[in-house]
Amino acid sequence: MPVSEAPPPWSFPGHLIVPSHERRHMNMVGRHAMHAGFMNRKLTAALLIAAAVLTNAAFTVLGSVFNYPDVLKEPAGSVLADFRAAQGQVTLWFTVLALAAALFVPIAIGVGKLSTRPAMRIAGG
User: Fold this and answer.
1) pLDDT of 27-44, one tens digit each?
2) In a 10 Å sphere around its CB, with 0-12 CB exposed, 13-18 middle and 19+ buried, how is residue 29 labelled?
């Protein structure tokens, strides 16, 4: 293939050189993604922070109330007695832990929507 027929260097997948007209389009897509739909950059960041704070709070309280996760090494009879003694708090904080884990669903969608890569945009819904 003669040099004049070679495709431009930015057409190769994964190549880092992007012509200026395509960069402008990518910036417009990024700006649109920030404002499109319910998920945006600030909400995604807030959910990430909330998930981290809730997870740490739940583990801390469960550690003090129920000796979690060390309680998993104890015999079942003593674990059940400890659970019955603090059942309300243990149930509440395990629920908080589960909700913190569930926050990763909208976080994943938000990260996918904020990306300019086609595969991530598809994954983001």
Assistant:
1) 444 444 444 566 788 999
2) middle
Distances (CA, A) of 5 to 1, 15, 80: 6, 18, 75
Q: Answer for the pair 62, 97: CB distance below 8 angstroms, yes or no.
A: yes
Q: Which amino acid is at 103?
A: L
* Percent of the chain scoring above 70 in pLDDT: 66
DSSP state of 36: S
* Closest-CA residue to 29 (of 117, 108, 111, 107): 117
> Please, which pLDDT band fits residue 92 given cuts at 50, 70 and 90?
very high
pLDDT > 70? residue 55: yes
Closest by Cα among 55, 66, 45, 125 to 96: 55
